[in-house]
Amino acid sequence: xxxxxxxxxxxxxxxxxxxxxxxxxxxxxxxxxxxxxxxxxxxxxxxxxxxxxxxxxxxxxxxxxxxxxxxxxxxxxxxxxxxxxxxxxxxxxxxxxxxxxxxxxxxxxxxxxxxxxxxxxxxxxxxxxxxxxxxxxxxxxxxxxxxxxxxxxxxxxxxxxxxxxxxxxxxxxxxxxxxxxxxxxxxxxxxxxxxxxxxxxxxxxxxxxxxxxxxxxxxxxxxxxxxxxxxxxxxxxxxxxxxxxxxxxxxxxxxxxxxxxxxxxxxxxxxxxx
Length: 274
Description:
Elements: H1 22-36, H2 58-68, H3 94-273
């Protein structure tokens, strides 16, 4: 889905987190992501609206209003604990002395209540404190049990995460080794291809040179054959000439011999006639 963020970190098997500069680089990436991040929707829209005044009392509301209006806090009034006599202008008034007497009675009652509380604390304070401590210890023990359960759940989650990451790490290492092997094989294949291309180019060059030399040899052979044919024709012509000359000489010799025979016969005939 669009907008999803896939976390591909495996803290249990990844290495290099303690190297210098890694933490600074990670913090810089987080700051950059926070600077660029613009939420497209309210991720708390499925929750009911938050009520901030549900636990406020009237006094707390008044105090929050005072703080919001920047009004200084009133100091603690100690007037009720004072026993002032009537002022000089009211020394002769009975009501002023009655107010002073009532104030003194209130102060005396307050001191008597404090003394009674101290006596009660001496009698029952130890047991009350013990009971409070027992309740507090029971609450602490319950909180400790909950804490241990939470720690166990966290440990189980971390253990499951570690197992999953360990399995994923083994698979990643196998895939990485396979990738390295395939890359090495591809590199070797590329080297072999380059060598084969060089050999093919060399063979093509040799074949081209051989074809050129064969063409030259063929032309030379053809030329030699032609020359041989010409020489042979010349020889044949020479032989024919020689044969013709021989035949001519033989014919001449035969004609001369025939003439001599004729001369001899004519001479013989003349001799016979005489």
